[in-house]
Each structure stands twice: as structure tokens, then as C-alpha cells.
Amino acid sequence: MNLLAPLETLVEPSQLAEARARRGLSVEQLARRSGLRVEEIEWLEDGRLFRFPSQNAAMLSAIVYATAVGIDRVEARRLAGLPAHGNPFRANPVARLIGTAAVAALVSALLVMVFMPGLRGERTRTVVAATEPGLPAPWKISVTVLNGAGDINSTREVASRIGSMGYLIDKVTRADRFDYPRTAVYYEPGSQDIGIRLARQLGVGTATLPPGNHPRTLVVIVGPRKGPGS
Predict the structure, then answer these.
(1) What pLDDT, on a 0 to 100 scale, did the predictor assign at position 13?
(2) How do residues 52-70 score in pLDDT, each as one tens digit?
(3) In whole angstroms, what is the distance from residue 62 CA to residue 105 CA?
(4) Strand 184-187 vs strand 217-222: parallel, antiparallel, or unpaired?
(5) Integer Cα distance of 169 and 182 in angstroms
(6) What is the pLDDT of residue 222?
(7) Residue-by-residue DSSP string for the chain
(8) In what order do the strands lie in the sheet with 184-187?
(9) Is 90 exposed, middle or buried (0-12, 13-18, 19+ CB in 10 A)?
């Protein structure tokens, strides 16, 4: 079964990319200002947080990004979809510094809400799953995440969620078609236990792949978005 096809391009800029563009900053200029690598900035703006080596690395990079761009409190609240009440800090430099740190924390929280839905609810279950007798730890399992419904943003959200649970993300690309009706975890014969574990963590179903030589590799095909955690 051919599940892979070339990766499609994300055409709409993210809110972070738009905030950077409003300040007239190119990705290269922001990289010099923040000390982040160009690819790290692109990962943040595209929502590809699964590319970072860990959740903490992604969050710290988000804080650095927000601080370097200089997003104020009102703009941060708008990015987070919250009412933008009050005025930005103006008079006191110390207050401005404190406000910038608060804004960075808010934007980093926004990134978690947008790109890692359900993360807080998964953390406890992940620890339990990693200690299940007879099963390899999640970080020893590779996962390929495929866009099976035409929504690359939703696919990246699912990939980031899986990565936050400790799994190794092998690749994120499109499936062979865009008419998969639901999200599911696919596993090779003999890998049922680890497939069911990931499916349980994601709250989705499972299906089998043709026999192969990759017992510690799972495939997740992302179907239509049905809610914040889908």
C-alpha cells in the first residue's frame, strides 16, 4: 500500500510570521537578532515544533523568538485570541522588561495551545505508557505522520503532539490520497501492542499495514479535523 506522496507547501503565513513581517524583519534578520537558526524560526512559524529535539527546546526557542520580535502585551493577547484590554507598557523600563517576559511566556503558551493540543492531558498517560512491561519506550519508536485529509496544519499539530509524548518523528508528509475518513495508527503485524498504545494516547483507532521489516515504526494517517484535540 503506497501511503507516501510529495510534501505539499503551506501557503498561508502563520500569525507569528505576520507579526515578524509587520516589523519589516526577514527571517535572516530575526535570526541575527535572536540567535536562533533560520530553520528554527521557520519551524516555529510553520508550527513544526516536532523538529526541535525536545518540548523544552521548542518552548525556549518560542520565548526567544517573541522577545526578539518585541511583541507587546496587547498584540500577544490578540495572537492568543483573548480580549486586548489595556495599554502597552510605556513609562517604566523595568515594567517594560517584566512585560516583555510576560508576553514571551504568553506567546509560548499560545504555541502549545495551537500546535500541541491535548499536551497537558497526555503527559501523565505518557509516563505510564513508557513503563508498561514488555513494551519499548516511546523514544525507541519511529512514527511517520501522513496528511490524509488535505490539512497540513492539522497534520503538523498531530505530529507535534506525538513528538511531545517522546516518540521519534521520522517524517511528516502527505498520504497517497486525501479522503481518509478518520485519524488512525497503522502498525505492522507483530507491532500491535505499540500501535494500540499510541492509538490510546491519541484517542484514535488502529489498522494493520502489510508485513514489513520495521517492527518499531508506526504510521499515523491524519483524517479530517473534528475538534481541538483531533
Answers:
(1) 64
(2) 877 778 778 888 888 888 8
(3) 9
(4) antiparallel
(5) 20
(6) 96
(7) ----BPPPPP-SPPHHHHHHHHTT--HHHHHHHH---HHHHHHHHHT-GGGSSSHHHHHHHHHHHHHHHT--HHHHHHHTT----S----S-HHHHHHHHHHHHHHHHHHHHHHHSTTHHHHHHHHHHHHT-TTS--GGG-EEEEEESSS-HHHHHHHHHHHHHTT-EEEEEEE-S-S---S-EEEE-TT-HHHHHHHHHHHT-EEEEPPP-S-TTEEEEEE----STT-
(8) 168-174, 142-147, 217-222, 184-187, 205-208
(9) exposed
Quote the crossing angle between the two packed helices 38-46 and 15-22, to the nearest 10°.
120
**Closest CA relative to residue 117, chosen from 169, 166, 153:** 153
Other CB atoms within 10 Å distance of the CB of residue 183: 24
Distance CA 133, CA 209 (A): 24
115 is written with which cell numbers? Answer: 500546535
Please tell me which residue, 143 or 5, carries the higher pLDDT value: 143
Phi, psi for 174 (deg, rounded to 5): -90, 155
Q: What global pTM score does this model have? A: 0.54
pLDDT band, residue 122 (cuts 50/70/90): very low
- Which among 93, 109, 174, 169 is positioned nearest to 138, based on CA atoms? 169
